[in-house]
Amino acid sequence: MAYTSEYPPFFVTVDGVVLTIRNDALCALVVTRGGEPFRGRLALPGGFVDIDEDLGVAAVRELSEETGISVQGLHVEQLASYGAPDRDPRHRTISIAYLAVLPDLPEPVGGDDASDAHWHRVTWLLARKDRLAFDHRQILRDGVERAHAKLEYTALGTSFCERAFTIAELRRVYEVMWGVELDPGNFHRKVTGVAGFVEPTGRKASRGTGRPAELYRRGPTASLNPPLTRATLG
Amino acid sequence: MAYTSEYPPFFVTVDGVVLTIRNDALCALVVTRGGEPFRGRLALPGGFVDIDEDLGVAAVRELSEETGISVQGLHVEQLASYGAPDRDPRHRTISIAYLAVLPDLPEPVGGDDASDAHWHRVTWLLARKDRLAFDHRQILRDGVERAHAKLEYTALGTSFCERAFTIAELRRVYEVMWGVELDPGNFHRKVTGVAGFVEPTGRKASRGTGRPAELYRRGPTASLNPPLTRATLG
DNA sequence: CCAAAAGTGTTTGATTTACACCCATGG
DNA sequence: CCATGGGTGTAAATCAAACACTTTTGG
Predict the structure, then answer these.
(1) For residue A6, which residues of chain B lie inside 8 Å, CB to CB?
(2) Poorest-confidence range of A14-18, A41-45, B138-142, B227-231?
(3) pLDDT at B34 over 60
(4) B90 touches chain A (CB under 8 A)
(5) B126 CA to D4 C1', in Å?
(6) B213 touching A, CB under 8 A?
(7) Considering its fold, how many domains does chain B have in total?
(8) Which of A62, A32, A45, A73 is nearest to A159 (CA)?
(9) In terms of Cα–Cα distance, which of A228, A232, A78 is closest to A149?
(10) Beta-strand pair A46-48/A11-22
C-alpha cells in the first residue's frame, strides 16, 4: 500500500526514557538496535506511531513490545519532542519522548519481541558520545534532568519505590539521585510532615537488622512547597 | 508536486503560546482563522513545519509571519506536543507547542501577513470551551501553567519586563500572575539578594510620582533555590 | 546484651514575615 | 511641603540543620 500527499512526508515516533534505581545507581532501559541505521548500537525503546494512535498510547505500547515492561499505573509523562531535520538519516522524523519512572524490577525485562532490553547505568550511557543511537543521548540527558528537577518540588521520588515503601527506601532514592547523604531523622520528619506526600499503611517492614520501619504508600501527591532541600553531607 | 510513501502521512505543525502582561492582566496572542476548519475562530499563531526546517525555527518564523512579532532575544521554550488522532478534522496532525514570554508591546502587532493578531486576556480566552480552535484551549492552559510554575523557581518573571526595569515593575508581574499583593520591601530584598537574578544598570527611572527607582536588567539567570514564595496578602 | 536502623526531641542558627521608618521626587 | 512610591532596618516568628537520644528488632 502506498500513500500520496501534496506535502512532504514526516515520520512520527515515540521514544521512552525509562528510569529506575538499581544497585544504588540511576539506570535507564535501552535496547540493542537490530536494523539500520545504527545497527547494534544501543537506543531508547521506541518506534513509529500508528496513524490513528494517540501519542501516549503509542509510547506505552512500544515500551511493552520492545521491553516487555508494562507501565500501567506507573509514572509516565511527556518529556519533549525532537525534530532536527538531520536527526534520522533516512527520513524527516519527529520523535516525542516520554519519561517513565519505575521501581527496581526483578531484572531481565526481556520482551516478547526484540527482547534484548537491558538496564544500564545512566552515567555509563552518557559518558561517551557514541553509546546511543540518533540523538538519544540528548533525550536521555533531558529525561534525567527532568527527573532531577521534579524530585525537588513534586513527589516523583515515590515513583522509584514499590507500592509500599519505607521512608528509608525513599530517602535512598534522593541520596542516589543527588549523590549526597541525608540526615535520616530530618528526612523522615520532612517527608511525613508534607500533607499529601506519603500516607502510612499501618503495616511494618522488617528489612534485615534494626527496628522495623513503618510502611507508606504514595499520597495524593501534593506539590512540595517549600521543596525538599539537600541536607547534611556525609 | 506529490509525494508517495508506504506509511500514512503525518502533518507537523508548531503553535505558539505567547504571553505578556497588559493592563494588569495576563494576555495571550491569538489570530483569527481565515480558512477552514474553524474559520473565524480564534487560534494560537502557528502553522506547518517545512520539511527541512528545525522545529524551533519554524515556531519563530510562524510567529513572525502571522503576527509580525520578532521574538529574537526573548524567552522561547518548547512547551509540549499534541497529537490526539482527532485533533484536526482534516489530517493526522502533530503540533509542537512553544511558549514565549514578552514584555508589553506597543499594541497592535499587526503582521505582514494575516495581520489580525490580537492580545486577549487569558481568563477570557479560557472562560468558555469554544473560544479557541482545535485543542488550543488545552495548549494555552498548559502554557499558562508552565509559566506559573517557572515563575517560582526561575527568573522567568524578568522576561515579562523590558530590557531595563524597576523592581516594582517586576513585582507587578508576580502580583498579577499570582493574584496577590506582595510586600514591596521584602520583595526588593529577596530579588536583589539572589545571585544572578537581576543586576543593577546604575541608571534610575522616574515613573510618575515618588522616589525614582533603580533600573535593573536580567542577570545570568540563576535558578532560584529557595524559590520565590507568595508573601503577605493585601 | 550488642549492633544497627527507625524515629523523636532539642538546640542553634538562618530565613521569612511584618511593619516601622527614612529617602527622593513631582506637583 | 506634602503625597507617593522606593528602599532599608529590625524584631518576632518560623523553619532547617545538626545531633543526642530513645525505640525495636536480629543475631
Answers:
(1) 1-3
(2) B227-231
(3) yes
(4) no
(5) 37
(6) no
(7) 2
(8) A73
(9) A228
(10) antiparallel
Report, as an integer, the average pLDDT of A147-175. Answer: 95
**Boundary (domain end) residue, out of B113, B139, B165:** B139
Q: Quick check: A3 and B2 CB within 8 A?
A: no
Least confident of A218-232, B112-126, B220-234: B220-234
Which nucleotide across the nucleic acid strands is nearest to A208, CA versus C1'?
D26
Count Cβ atoms below 10 Å from residue A34 Cβ, excluding itself. 9
CA of B198 to C1' of C15 (A): 20
Closest CA to A79 of A133, A156, A21: A156
Q: Copy the grid coordinates of residue A35.
A: 536494523
**Residue A161: domain span:** 153-218
Interface contact flag, A9 B10, Cβ < 8 Å: yes
CA distance readout (Å), B200 to A122, B163, B168: 41, 12, 14
Burial class of residue A158 in the structure, from the number of CB atoms within 10 Å of its CB (0-12 exposed, 13-18 middle, 19+ buried) = buried
CATH number (domain holding residue B165): 1.10.10.10
Q: How high is the pLDDT of residue A234?
A: 46
* Beta carbons of A160 and A218 less than 8 angstroms apart: no
Pairwise CA distance, residues A183 & B98, whole Å: 41
Residues B15 and B127 in one domain: yes
The reply to whether residue A94 touches residue B55, judged by beta carbons under 8 angstroms, is yes
Which CA distances in Å does B53 have to B17, B35, B45, B213?
A: 20, 24, 18, 44
Averaged pLDDT, A137-154: 95
CA–C1' distance B70–D6 (Å)?
33
Q: Please give the span between the terminal C-alpha atoms of chain A, in angstroms, as a whole number.
A: 63
Q: Indicate the SS3 state at residue A114.
A: coil
Are residues A83 and B54, on separate chains, in Cβ contact within 8 Å?
yes
Q: Let me know if residue A53 belongs to a domain.
A: yes
Residues of A within 8 A of B98 (CB-CB) are none
DSSP SS3 for A124: helix
Scanning every strand, the nucleotide with its C1' closest to A215's CA turns out to be: C6
Residue B153: pLDDT band (50, 70, 90) is confident
Domain-embedded: residue B234: no
